[in-house]
From TrEMBL:
Residues 407-650 form the EAL domain. It comes from Iodobacter fluviatilis. Residues 172-224 form the HAMP domain. PANTHER family: CYCLIC DI-GMP PHOSPHODIESTERASE PDED-RELATED, CYCLIC DI-GMP PHOSPHODIESTERASE PDEF. The gene is dosP. SMART domains: EAL, GGDEF. It holds the Pfam family EAL. The chain crosses the membrane at residues 153-175. CDD domains: EAL. One of its GO terms (biological process) is signal transduction. Keywords: Hydrolase, Membrane, Transmembrane, Transmembrane helix. GO terms for molecular function: cyclic-guanylate-specific phosphodiesterase activity. This is Diguanylate cyclase/phosphodiesterase. Residues 266-396 form the GGDEF domain.
Amino acid sequence: MSLRLKFLIGLTLLFTLLMIGLFAERVHSTRQYVEAQLASTAQDAATSLVYPISRALGKNDVVLAETAIKSLLDRAYFQRIEIVALSGKTMAKMEQAKPIAGVPVWFIKWQHLDPAPGTALLSDGWRQLGRVVVISEPALAYKQLWDVLTHTLALLLATYVISLLVMNFLVRILLQPLSAIEKSANEVQEREFNPIKQLPDTREFRRVVLAFNVMIERVRQFLSIEQQRAEEYRHQAFTDTTTGLDNRRNLDLRLDGLLKKLPQDSIGAAFAIQLEDLSEFNNREGYQKGDAILKQVAHVLLEKMAQQSPLIARLNGTTLFALHFNLNSGQIDQMGDQILASLKEITATLERPLQYGVAIVDFKHGTPKSKLLSTTDLALQQALFNGGESRQRMSANESSNQLPHGSQQWREVLQAAIQDKSWGIQAQSVQNIADKQIVHQELTARLRNQDGPWISAGLFMPMAARHGLLQAAEQSLFDLAISKLENAATLQGQSIALNVGLLGALGSLTGQDEFVARLNKLKKHAARISFEVPEHQLIAAPELARRFARLLRDAGFGFGIDQYGFAATAAALIRELKPNYVKIDRRLISDMAVHKDTKEMILSLIQVAESLNITTIAQGIESEAQLALLKAMKITAMQGYLIGRPEEVI
């Protein structure tokens, strides 16, 4: 109940009591007055009747006495006139009943008037004859009493209504400060701290409002401090201090919900950037420069996402991660290319190269967080294993559910394969274009995850490198490949090519020496064995590349360059390393049918290789049109599905 209503109720009660008191007093005094008036009138009438009645009774003329009474009774002011003898006997009596008009019966019963009779002695000389009794008519008294009551009640009610209106107005003005306090208190609940600007004139309310304003200011300051503290705690808990992006904890808490928000018929994309050897870069260049690079890379994601990403976070020390929901397949590739171009601009300013990889992973509604992150990790490792400065696109929905999930499961699967040598070896033919003779069989490794499908080397080798198992995996695979060379019926009398890299054991001088020492046991097979290294690894470690190529030549083994043609120094590379063959990357072979400049570049590489007596092999030949074009370009050999798919070595 509001204070104003309580004031009005209190005023009503007060007026009610006052009205009852005034009404009762007015009715009582009026009643006393009319009763006294009735008694006085009756007494005057009795006195006026003494002389005529006494004369009539002195003559024993009762009729004359009654005539005198009747003449007075006709005036209608009297109810009864009676002549009583000394003995008490009524000698003459006249009365009338006057109707009481305009007065309620209940009022007459409530305010019953009993007027006092007027009495006068009758005498004839010294002889007493009796007495006359007159009783006044109360009809007019009732009417007068009723009029007084109604007029008084109307006046009091009018006074009450006027007072109520005035009091309501005064109370409204008086309680304005309280209304302002209530409004301000409600605003405080809505986190709006607006002090009361208009101070009341009433001293008590003025003090209350001033105190309330002080309280509001203190509450505002307190909540501001608490809000700032909460934001700081939130920033510390969920924000990466270096890049300003969300941290891994925030990502783990939000990612599941975000993946479920993707519409059923939409494709989402996860973009990840990993900087390779950032810790080494920090040790070499200083942590400030390393942090500056991370901030620039984070800015790239923020700029390219253009506020369209629901999540941009630092996944770990060297990896940044972002989601995007509103891109089609072409736009996803375009954004990946833009991110890659921006990263090249950043790293181009560095004195020493910093390798990086970009992963793009498509996913659909309901894709588990673990699957998305494991696929992203796998794509990143492939991009880095392929030389970095590249992007790898995969699909979390199309990737096999039977692939290892998570870093720990990959480690366990790889360790088991290394220990048990549970690898699969496939061979794909490389064929001369001119006479269709087999040049060699390229051996590729596969890994089985329990009872699931085979996993290609392009998937498991990057993960082996990440977990420090690359050297052990290479050694295990090498032993298995050599055993296949000696024992497999499908390889009898054929040359083989083995893929090796400079990221594992061959990435050090000691490792290369140990590798060559093992090759000495295979001298009898030297003419049948070639080792090929990806172009990007040779360019990344030129000193190791030159040494490894020389060691192989000295030991009598063949040496080839795989995935050749992308480097700007590709022609200079073969002049320096003098490989037995180069395998032109399948992406260039596919692109030359579309872009003339790619075709011209390949043609120039073929001519340089031919001048150095180096065999050129085209990878990924899948159509007769490609084969016809390569024949015209006088390439030496080819490899691809057109001549045969990889087959299991038995």
